[in-house]
Amino acid sequence: MTITGTTTTVYDLITPEVRADLITLVREDSWPEMTYDQGERGVRQLAAFLAVAATTTERATPSLRVDLFWHAFVLHTKHYAAFCDALGGGFIHHVPDRGEGHDPAEGRAAMRRTAEMIRSAGFDVDTEFWPSDGAADCTQSYAGCSDSPVVK
Where are the domains of the chain? Predict the structure, then answer.
């Protein structure tokens, strides 16, 4: 995916310094055995997820591993807001879903639908970050996070 009028990829909208910090935060807070390569791939998957979330009218739900990177990015408020602005879809709000009666199967299905939206938008979907069965590394089995879809 490119940003209108440029050849800049969404991944490149996150500076190398911020990418490195996101990887460090995720490693220190949640995933200590993560390699730097996995971290770079995680940031790529986050960028693709947010690009889709910025433009869809459907709810986009990240996998657990993508959500770890999203949490880290939201902490960088200035960089995160600038990234959202560059995507052109407005600020992408992070919305936790902790309601009672949350259906684990629906959460896994929502994550799979989101991965398909990412693929349909022309991005690669890394199966380490988007498991096809939706079971491994999926917060949606008990609670989850999503974006606030664009209303058109």
Answer: 11-146
CA atoms of 140 and 8, how far apart (whole Å): 32
The predicted model scores a pTM of 0.85
The tokens for 84 are: 């959202």
Q: What are 24-40's pLDDT values in tens digits?
A: 999 999 999 999 999 99
Hey, CA dihedral for 89, 123, 148, 73, is it positive or negative?
A: negative
Residues, the chain, total? 152
Annotate 79-105 with DSSP letters as a single string: HHHHHHHHHTS-----EEE--TT--HH
pLDDT (tens digit per residue) in 52-79: 999 998 989 999 999 999 999 999 999 9
Distance CA 6, CA 120 (A): 21
Beta bridge partners of 146: 95
